[in-house]
């Protein structure tokens, strides 16, 4: 079992003391309304501005090292930014992303070592943690690519199993010469995952999930104001599609989109593109990382979601008498 070091425990204690004296009530507002134009039902007390951190971290072949690096990065981010409320880790943040490694590094959820550390860290820092993704073992021969979400109480409040397994076979002339098929080792998930983050509905996907507009639309129909995709996006398609897909999902559904990639390692067998990103509801890139290790911290202003949906009210303008995106499996 991987436990927090004494140094990390002391750092968490120091942060907790600071937080007791830095509670900012100005970020809370009373809405309690349903606005058809905005298409979402917000709780009575919701935070209109959310401080988020995307941790673009390197990944090595040792789980303990990867998890410890994540703990250090999260702790440092919270120490420097006491108002930090949500941290997002990359897809496959605790182990190498490769077919031959999936079974070797798979863990049970929530009793595995990685989950135990994330739970304790979320509770100690009083933050939400979207734990990128890890390979989840359900049965000896059944593995999922799974994103976990932890509340400030340390409780597991979301578990998203990647719905669309990554499968590409790109010809060399199309910036590729690449083949990858998660289906050779993993099982696809069957459920959408919506979590409540500080009073806002957030829809979850993992990497390849963001290529599917129907999924994003289903999340919008469920009232989501933000979509988060931990993503180890292939470098072969990164320059062409990475930003394009995120801006499309944000613009089509008038919500925030955030992605978190591992840091690029050109010596690894699978090279992630990097460039973790936040896109606003207008479809503009709000923040973007480079290719290497980087931590992005920024504010999500949910008032912008309302403003965009009010000024360009496409949600009530849809011709659902002609077409519709229906959620088949609840």
TrEMBL record:
InterPro entries per record: C-N_Hydrolase (IPR003010), C-N_Hydrolase_sf (IPR036526), Nit1/2_C-N_Hydrolase (IPR045254)
SUPFAM superfamilies reported for this sequence: Carbon-nitrogen hydrolase (SSF56317)
Entry GO terms, CC: mitochondrion
EC number: 3.5.1.3
Gene Ontology biological process: asparagine metabolic process; glutamine metabolic process; oxaloacetate metabolic process
Domain CN hydrolase: residue ranges: 48-302
Gene3D superfamilies: Carbon-nitrogen hydrolase
Pfam families, alphabetized: CN_hydrolase
Entry keyword annotation includes Cytoplasm: no
Presence of the UniProt keyword Hydrolase in the record: yes
Keywords: Hydrolase
GO molecular function: omega-amidase activity
PANTHER family: NITRILASE-RELATED, OMEGA-AMIDASE NIT2
Protein known as: omega-amidase
């Amino acid at each position: 079992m991987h436990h927090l070091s004494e140094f990390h425990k002391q750092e968490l204690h120091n942060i907790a003391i600071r937080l007791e004296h830095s509670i900012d009530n100005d970020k809370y507002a009373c809405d309690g309304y349903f606005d058809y134009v905005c298409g979402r039902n917000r709780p009575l007390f919701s935070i209109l501005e959310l401080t988020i951190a995307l941790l673009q971290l390197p990944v090595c072949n040792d789980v303990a090292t990867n998890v410890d690096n994540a703990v250090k990065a999260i702790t440092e981010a919270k120490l420097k930014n006491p108002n930090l409320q949500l941290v997002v880790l990359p897809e496959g943040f605790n182990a190498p992303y490769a077919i031959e490694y999936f079974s070797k590094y798979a863990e049970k959820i929530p009793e595995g070592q990685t989950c135990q550390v994330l739970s304790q860290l979320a509770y100690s820092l009083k933050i939400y943690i979207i734990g990128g993704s890890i390979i989840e073992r359900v049965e000896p021969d059944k593995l999922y690519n799974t994103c976990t979400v932890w509340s400030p109480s340390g409780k597991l409040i979301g578990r998203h199993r990647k719905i669309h397994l990554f499968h590409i076979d790109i010809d060399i002339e199309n910036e590729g010469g690449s083949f990858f098929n998660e289906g050779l080792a993993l099982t696809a998930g069957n459920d959408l995952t919506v979590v409540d983050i500080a009073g806002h509905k957030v829809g979850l996907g993992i990497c390849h999930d963001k290529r599917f507009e129907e999924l994003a639309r289903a999340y919008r129909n469920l009232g989501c104001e933000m979509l988060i995709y931990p993503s180890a996006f292939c470098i072969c398609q990164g320059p062409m599609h990475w930003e394009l897909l995120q801006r499309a999902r944000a613009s089509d559904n008038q919500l925030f989109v955030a992605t978190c990639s591992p840091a690029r390692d050109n010596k690894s067998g699978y090279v992630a593109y990097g460039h973790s990103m936040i896109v606003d509801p207008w479809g503009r890139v709000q923040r973007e990382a480079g290719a290497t290790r980087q931590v992005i911290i920024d504010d999500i202003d949910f008032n912008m979601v309302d403003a965009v949906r009010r000024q360009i009210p496409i949600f009530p303008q849809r011709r659902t008498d002609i077409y519709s995106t229906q959620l088949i499996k609840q």
